[in-house]
Amino acid sequence: MHVLQETDSTNNYAMQMVEQNSAKHGDAWLAIHQTQGKGQRGKQWVSEKGKNITLSIAVKIDNAGITEQFYFLAAMALAARSLFARYVYEADKVKLKWPNDVYWGDIKAGGILIENKISGQNWKWAVVGFGINVNQEEFETSFSKKAVSLKMIRGVEFDVETLAQELCTEADKWFQIFEDKDYQKILQEYNQHLYKKGEKVRLKKDTFFEAEVIGVNSDGELMVKTDMLESFGFGEIEWDFQ
């Protein structure tokens, strides 16, 4: 693991290393200060300097096709969840909000963003960006009721670099399961910790609607029950938390 004092985005940095053929499989970069962290759908991931895990890992993909990307995403999400759950009192409160956020109860604790290098039909590299709230206690107003950190839950300070190293170990463990193509185990674990499973939620696709969360299928789609069973892919629906 390499420690960067400052960078715009660890994912940008890691992908540059991949593009320059300077990255080795498993190389990781932790930023003390990330100035333009990336979230899903072009959103920014804002992190106070030195307070949180802002880490990217370069992963060489040798024997998986692009159709198996969801299992990789799920495996990396499970790694992030495992780390956070290790340090809170009620580990079963740590859930995975489809597709890639870590929640503690109803509050966001972290997320992952994966960017891929694909050549033709060949998936060559993945850069896995982890953002996990560790010691930050105040968040921007728009996030103030939606974000939580380990310190806010436990009331103690954590060593960010130590936790980042543990996260790398956890990611390696789940990557081995992915490489062994034990996709059933990944999907089963992901569904076991799925946020709001068996509960009614409010979702949006053009208009708002209520549905019960059933689970995630082998295509990585969220299955919900309205008057009938429906499934949605990434980007097709949004969660509504009003």
Characterize the structure shown.
- The chain is globular, with a radius of gyration of 17 Å.
- The protein has 2 domains: 2-192, BirA Bifunctional Protein, domain 2 (2-Layer Sandwich); 200-240, SH3 type barrels (Roll).
- It is α+β, with helices and mostly antiparallel strands.
- The protein has a 7-stranded mixed β-sheet with strand order 1-2-5-9-8-7-6, sandwiched between helices. Strands 13-12-11-10-14 form a 5-stranded antiparallel β-sheet. The protein has a two-stranded antiparallel sheet with strand order 3-4.
- The chain has helices at 10-19, 69-86, 150-154, 160-179, 183-192; strands spanning 2-7, 28-34, 37-38, 44-45, 53-60, 94-97, 101-104, 107-119, 122-132, 200-205, 207-216, 222-225, 229-232, 238-240.
- It has 5 helices and 14 strands.
- It starts with a strand and ends with a strand.
- Strand 12 and strand 13 form a beta hairpin.
- The mean pLDDT is 93.
